[in-house]
Amino acid sequence: MKDFFFQIIRSDEGCRSYVLADSGTKRGLVWDPSLAGLESTLEVVAEQGLTHLILADSHTHADHFSATAELAKRLRDVAKVEIVMGEKTESERPGRRLRDGDRLDMGPKMQAVVLATPGHTEDSICLYIEVGGEKLVLTGDSLLIGSSGRTDFPGASAEALYHSLHEKIMKLPGTTWLFPGHDYSGYLFSRLEVEAKQNSQLAMDKSEFLLFKQNEVLDCTPVVPKIVDFNRASSPSAPMHIPAAAICARSEPVPGVRSIGTDELRSLIGEHSKKSLFIDVREPDEVNKARIPGLQNIPLSLVWTKLPEIAASESAYFSCQSGRRSGMVTATLARLGFSNAINVAGGIQGWMARGYHVEAS
Ligand SMILES: [Fe+2]
Fold first, then answer.
1. What distance in angstroms lies between residue 282's CA and the mean position of ligand 1's atoms?
2. Domain with residues 4-232, CATH architecture
3. Which of 145, 181, 220, 149 is nearest to 58 (CA)?
4. pLDDT tens column, 50-86
5. Please, which of 105, 111, 195, 282 could form a disulfide with 130 given CB 3.0 to 4.6 Å?
6. DSSP 282
């Protein structure tokens, strides 16, 4: 990943935010930041020393509090910041409103093009990015893994979403990596060619899709209008507690993943199998504090960049702190067709509970 920096920021609400930067510049993008992930986002921006930041909301969120206004306030002394949103937005926050086909300048190596994708909301946009030989699309709540955004909130249109999905997003190259604004099943990423085969909502013709969306019953919370008001305000007041979660889409049931325990991991590492990969998906600072000897570190956000090596291995064992994050990686890879991805249940916590040796830097 020498050409660019990429970090997924997850929150317990199932929201996904992303920080991207061209490695040759100090310019970055924060996509769909949430207040729940505010401190993590600030840490990442500081670690990367980003001095120019585009803060983007894919749409006016109705389920969580956007952190664009707070980030702009907290970062304005250390970086040049600009809030952007789609041209149809009613939010007061953006300094620039993006049209279909607009480009975001993050440096010579990172080409980012805006797609206007109304449907989930009228102001929804996606961002298609080419960098380092890879193509990725940040889809907000338009296309999700195995699903698509709900269309029952005010301003939504199932017909517009159908058009956005088929005439905009799915027209991108099939090899494009998909990073959604939410995933309630725990999947991390997908690929458009995989969604074309596995996403049942993409398989529907227009009339089936419209009927499906008309009958889609999803959780809601009575405070949605207050969340929308907060997310539209340029200087919002302190957010209220959300008593019940609203969600932006239906989730797909997650199939069982292959897993082993820490005892089995220990014997497998002991065999020094050259055909297998042993991967710790925690962040480098966690790995420096304590790590299982013999595991290489590929942080969760970057697993997608290592898929050729993973595909070539006989087995790829994934470990983390407790088995939760590595379970997400394993489920994501299983959905993409990797039959060799195996989760280490219990992670380093389970390893240490057995009294096994750990290393530290
Ligand atoms: Fe949404």
1. 28
2. 4-Layer Sandwich (3.60)
3. 181
4. 999 999 999 999 988 999 999 999 999 999 999 999 9
5. 111
6. S
